[in-house]
Amino acid sequence: MFARDLKLARVPAHVGFIPDGNRRWAEARGHAKRCGYAAGIAPGLVLLDLCRALGVAEVTIYGFTKDNVRRPADQVDAFRDACVDFCGRAADAGYAVRVVGDAASAVFPSDLVHLASQRRAGDVRVNLLVNYGWQWDLRELERTGALASADVPRIDLVVRWGGRRRLSGFLPAQCAYADLFVVERLWPDMTAQDFVEALQWYQAQDVTLGG
Amino acid sequence: MFARDLKLARVPAHVGFIPDGNRRWAEARGHAKRCGYAAGIAPGLVLLDLCRALGVAEVTIYGFTKDNVRRPADQVDAFRDACVDFCGRAADAGYAVRVVGDAASAVFPSDLVHLASQRRAGDVRVNLLVNYGWQWDLRELERTGALASADVPRIDLVVRWGGRRRLSGFLPAQCAYADLFVVERLWPDMTAQDFVEALQWYQAQDVTLGG
User: Which among B70, B141, B180 has CB closest to A138?
Assistant: First the structure.
């Protein structure tokens, strides 16, 4: 699937994804909440392949936050594992993976520490937020003069699954001008059509950058 | 109209309003774009009265930004005048008005300088963003250890008129967890029902603060 087949005149340079609804999805199927995270890995890889095919140059995905790690330990283990697995598979598929988050914390997966300081070589820049916190990000600005997420540029379009219409602390500086498209479907049920609809909607949005 | 008449179990403590669409409204009526701003004053006062009646404790309204002042001079004059007029009428109506923005700039209305450093006494806290910029806000954090908007607390619900689904630089730190409700209608055509619908939608949103 290519941008020209979809008649997309404007392809966003940088898209943010908020893959919400893993726990609701698991509960609706009678599973423990923790089981929802593993079901979210494959959809993420599908989305990366779509972005590559469409010519999106950079993708940033909400993995988990410093707020999220206050959840029950079995859930925390499950979303940490899912992030590690996702990064490995995205790297294997040739994506330029980078992790952004507080790697100094014990909850940060040790398997991802090397990706917190250096981007893997590859062809679409993929940033995964792991143990990220917007307060942590701003505190670094205050302390050092640069956001902790300074390596992540402005985001044009944010697509959120799971029906909530909010950013939930997702890179507030980079999303200052971002258009927000909300998909009702829960993340593990994501379809390629969801992203196509987001892109089609995005065609009609004017880009003013606040002007 | 009271919260109990509307069966609102949850009234947001702090609501943000993005009154967009003044220029489109004026153009659709064959007027110059600048004429749209004066038409936005009365709807703002209606909204404040609604918030007072419903028990909303604090309101923050997007006046104009440091990005906006790059527009043609007649438009800049028009939205500056509209902000001055709105503040005067809100103060006359007994609201605790405060202005948040870069008052050191020549484009900042001199009539509002006193409200940039001190809140008027009154009963609903009303913050109007005047010559505000999110980069300016964050730069103050970097420079002084506190956001320039530090007097404005967390926002629960943002209601935006004019159909755009984005924050456009509206207080990124305070809106990190805010729910965003978008009204298609252009701001000068605002109706009380728009806000009632936003509040009814808000009833069904869970407040997790990122957890």
Answer: B141
